UniProtKB/TrEMBL annotation:
Residues 34-52 have a biased composition (Low complexity). It comes from Lepraria neglecta. The chain crosses the membrane at residues 615-632, 652-673. This is Uncharacterized protein. It is found in: Cell membrane. Residues 77-87 have a biased composition (Polar residues). It is a multi-pass membrane protein. One of its GO terms (cellular component) is plasma membrane. The keyword Transferase does not apply.
Amino acid sequence: MDQPFKNEPLWVPTGDDNLRSESPTSRTDRRHSSSASTSTGTTGDSSDTSNGRGRRSRPSVASASSQLPTVREKNQQRALSLNSVNKPPSLAKLGSDETVVSSKKVLTNFSKVATRNVEKEEARRQKLDRYNQENNGQREVYNRLKRWADAKEKGIKERLLSWVVPSYRQPPLPHIEELKSLARHYYTPRSELRCHVCDFGEGRAEHKMVDLGQLEEYWQTKPAWVDVRWIHAPLGIGLTHSSVEDIFLHDGPTGREFEAAARSGWPYMETEVLNFRHRDNSQEMRDVYLLLHKKEALLQDLNESTWKADQNASLHSDVDWRADHMALDPNYWTMVASDMPWQLSEGLAMGTGGSPKGGFREINRHIDKQILSSHPFYKDALLVRNPFRTFHRSDGFLLTLSPMAGINYLDKHFSRYLAEPIDAIFDNDDASAVGHVYQAFAEQGTSTWHRRTVEWFLVYLISEVGVTPHSLRQGHNAPAMETAYSSVIQDLKRRRYDTWQPNKTVQLVREYLSGIDELTTIRVNFTKKVEFFTVMQQDVKKHEADDTRMRKAPDNPDGESSIERVSWALKMVEEQLNVFDRLLLDLKQSMDALFQLRSIEQNELAIVSDSQNKAIMVFTVVTVIFLPLSFFTSYYGMNLSGIVNTVKTEGYFWKVCGSATLLIVLFTALSAFRHQLRRVMRSRMMKRPSLMV
């Protein structure tokens, strides 16, 4: 695997960059090119005290909310304004210390945002080394388990060879303790599941990691300086998910209602997030689950580890009650099954009606073969889907639940990010949208927010996550998903004109069908998102109207409002939907053309075959007539003494031989046409009035 970090040169603006910044179109189009500028430090972070990996920080989606000018920058801005006070307004060229953020000109210092934080880089490198070392050890156990499982499916030939050739013999099953460790590695026990607690206050932000077994105390109270506490738990839809959300909402006052966007009868908002996982990791998760979840020898210890670290007041008992109510067995495997990402072919995860059973589905061992992986950039990637749900309270608490642990942002280091352990994705704000949202406000806290409320942050978060995956944040330095699909479709269209071959043509049709299935699922996903952001737009407009009527002024008038944020997200998903609509239509028309072309080829082959059949028919007729005659002539003309000296007459001879000949021919004909005769008899029986009951 590539090294997680390389010594990259500091980014220095050039004349071309200034010219690009001067473009009036870019002033409006780039306002949402990223969700926020990457901050250089994390105030009060319990695990990491600073940020920065030597990257250029991209402009913010959040109006001016990603970066407020420092005192020195304000002085520079004031000096610039004094120098230009007598000049007429114009679209002036931006200097090296300016950038466009959400159509507002905000001073930033490139030397500041490009500063590398060596300590944080080293800490993350060490964390990745620990994760990779553990992964390598567990992957060795997994490979032995897989060889054992594959050997059990061998045929008779391999089993016979196993007596002679040692390589064909059944490998041993890994030790029971190794299997327990393997299960816990790929599926963390619920009480030990690592959750993120992010606090945001004026000019300050803190982040800490806590176990799910301690999570209840973190949504009871928060420090006085905290405006919003965001808790993110990587839970899929299931028993634990249902209990956590219910206890969270019960322990605090109800939040401001999103009447149109929230689900009817359920106080939460939900979207479905597309993200990328490594194909090998997805295959390993499925193999471990399917090969181990029925082994009784593992279950007792795994069940004990589920709640071993639980210190919550009511989570365990609530899960047990909910399992009894839903007629489910709350064992280890039932609790962790929702961690597995949904494939595109596994139905829609969104719209389950709030039931804990909505996260369960039949799990196949083998993952789908996606045509997107035929593109070189996505060769190791698997496009998966995960639900993302939000729950908020009026006392400033926000709870988000989603097992999403894949790549949201497409970057030139995409293959490197795919190979990173999923536990480390949150720390990589170049890959994770959830991690990036925290980093966007890690330095300034709520100082840049339009309104310092949980509702504003909720809208910001769900709109940032909901429009992914995309390559906007890194300045389109990687092929977008729709671009890759377009390239793959063009290759399929080119292969239509290859010479017809039985196996290759069938494989080509399968790729067409696979592509249609993928694009259809993606299109449905974006259609639901368009509907979601459309109704959310109604809610935020109502909220703004209510605030205006109540004379609640925004905390930061220059910050991006919720209306602007949702409008941007809606425009993004509408554009993506339009692109995939065109791609799906193009692929369907291309497959229709393929069938028409193959039909014409088959007609031409049929014409040639018909002329050949006519020539063969002559020989067939001659053969049918004279072959039996020659056979019987030679057979009955045999000079046998028994026939010559018989006392029977010649008539008796022909009676016996003629009857035998007729029976042989009749039996042969019935055998040859037995299937057709059976169909005729069945159809006649079905037409009888007595059988039409």
